[in-house]
């Protein structure tokens, strides 16, 4: 009887000492734009901070702020978060958090 208790305790100790899964796999994915300014766009021209011209969706899904900037820079545009995209023109846009202006 005592042998089975010792073996059960040994197995429990081994289970507790096992390494945890990688933390990276549990990370929340990058969300470039949220809330009212929820549309991520790559835009060429900013008009007085009110409207942006020649805008389009990023060619690939951004993985972080630097990647968002790089994806838009690769096509000659800037990363922006906008309120209302209409036919390549976007109203009320701002620079995403973490992206250098």
UniProtKB/TrEMBL annotation:
Major localisation: other
Signal peptide: 1-25
Gene3D superfamilies: Hydrophobin
UniProtKB keywords: Disulfide bond, Signal
Alphabetical list of Pfam families matching this protein: Hydrophobin_2
Localization per Swiss-Prot or TrEMBL: Cell envelope
SUPFAM superfamilies named in the record: Hydrophobin II, HfbII
Top-level taxon: Eukaryota
GO cellular component entries: extracellular region
Protein family membership: Belongs to the cerato-ulmin hydrophobin family.
Entry protein name: Hydrophobin
Source organism of this protein record: Xylaria flabelliformis
